[in-house]
Automatic annotation (TrEMBL):
EC class (word): hydrolase
Family annotation (PANTHER family): ABC TRANSPORTER I FAMILY MEMBER 17 (PTHR43423)
GO MF annotation list: ATP binding; ATP hydrolysis activity; phosphate transmembrane transporter activity
CDD domains: ABC_PstB_phosphate_transporter (cd03260)
Protein name: Phosphate ABC transporter ATP-binding protein, PhoT family
GO CC list: plasma membrane
EC number(s) reported in the record: 3.6.3.27
Length: 250
C-alpha cells in the first residue's frame, strides 16, 4: 500500500488557484523532496497532507489525499488522530516554553498517556532518534530555549517522533540553521527513513539531492516532474526542471 496517494488535487485560497491537478504517490520509508521556485505551492501541498490548511479561512480543496489508504478529507476523519500519524517540523525551530523533557513528552500527555515510565522511555528514545541525546542528557529539565537553534530544531524533530507518526512533513527544516547543524539534520533524515516516510520542502538543491530518494518539482501550482532524485538532477525530462536545477530561474 502507498503511504501517500494524492489524486487530482486542486487547491484554492479564495479565488487563487494555488495547486492544479496534483497527482503524487509516496511509498513507505522513502524520503521525497519538494522543490521549485518561491510561491509555486510546495508548502501548500505539504500542509494538505496533515490538513494544516484547514486553519486558513476561505480555502477549498478538491480531489483526494489518502494516507495509508485512508481518505484524510473524509467526514469521519478526526484531524487530531490524523496529526498523530502525520507529524510536522517547521522552518523555524518552535519549542514550547517548557523543559527539554516536557517538550518531547507533550504530545504523549495531550494524548492522555499517564504512565510515567512509558513517557520517560519514549522521550529518551525520541531524543536519541533525533541525534540529540548526548548534548542534552544532563539537562533534560532545563528550558528548551537554552538550546542552540540547531539543537532546538532536533528537539522539535524529537517532539514530532515521540507520538510515533508514520509520516513526518518537514518544511525547510534546515533553512534557519548553520552548516554544521544542517549536516546533522540531513544525517538524521537519512537515519529516520528506516522507520518513517519523510516529505521535505527545500530550496537547497544539494540538500534535496543528498537526502531524498525521489524529488518533485513544482512550478506555478503544477507538479511538473516527479521522479527518482538521481534522474531529476542528472537527466530531467522537462526543460522547466532543467532550468530550475541549473539555477537559470527561481
Ligand atoms: N494563507 C494564504 N492566503 C492566500 N494565498 C496564499 C496563502 N499562503 C500561500 N498563498 C499563495 O499560494 C501560493 C503558493 O504558496 P506556498 O507557500 O505554497 O509556496 P511555496 O512554493 O511553498 O513558496 P516558498 O518557497 O516561498 O515557501 C503563493 O502564490 C502564495 O502567495
Amino acid at each position: 500500500m502507498l503511504t501517500i496517494d494524492a489524486k487530482n488535487v486542486d487547491f484554492y485560497y479564495s479565488d487563487f488557484h494555488a495547486l492544479k491537478n496534483i497527482n503524487f504517490e509516496v511509498e513507505k520509508n522513502k524520503v521525497v523532496a519538494l522543490i521549485g521556485p518561491s510561491g509555486c505551492g510546495k508548502s501548500t501541498f505539504l500542509r494538505l497532507i496533515n490538513r494544516m490548511n484547514d486553519l486558513i479561512d476561505g480555502t477549498r480543496m478538491t480531489g483526494t489525499v489518502l494516507v495509508e489508504g485512508k481518505d484524510i478529507y473524509a467526514p469521519n476523519i478526526h484531524v487530531d488522530e490524523l496529526r498523530k500519524e502525520v507529524g510536522m517540523v517547521f522552518q523555524k525551530p518552535n519549542p514550547f516554553p517548557k523543559s527539554i523533557f516536557e517538550n518531547v513528552a507533550y504530545g504523549l500527555r495531550v494524548n492522555g498517556i499517564k504512565d510515567s515510565t512509558f513517557i520517560e522511555e519514549r522521550v529518551i528514545e525520541s531524543i536519541k532518534s533525533a541525534a540529540l541525546w548526548d548534548e542534552v542528557k544532563d539537562k533534560l529539565n532545563k528550558s528548551a530555549f537554552a538550546l542552540s537553534g540547531g539543537q532546538q530544531q532536533r528537539l522539535c524533530i524529537a517532539r514530532a517522533l515521540a507520538i510515533s507518526p508514520k509520516v513526518v512533513l518537514m518544511d525547510e527544516p534546515a533553512s534557519a540553521l548553520d552548516p554544521i547543524s544542517t549536516a546533522k539534520v540531513e544525517e538524521l533524515i537519512h537515519e529516520l527513513k528506516k522507520d518513517y516516510t519523510i516529505i521535505i520542502v527545500t530550496h537547497n538543491m544539494q540538500q534535496a539531492s543528498r537526502v531524498s530518494d525521489k524529488t518533485a518539482y513544482f512550478y506555478l501550482g503544477e507538479l511538473i516532474e516527479y521522479d527518482e532524485t538521481t534522474k531529476i538532477f542528472t537527466n530531467p525530462t522537462e526543460h522547466s526542471t532543467q532550468n530550475y536545477i541549473t539555477g537559470r530561474f527561481g
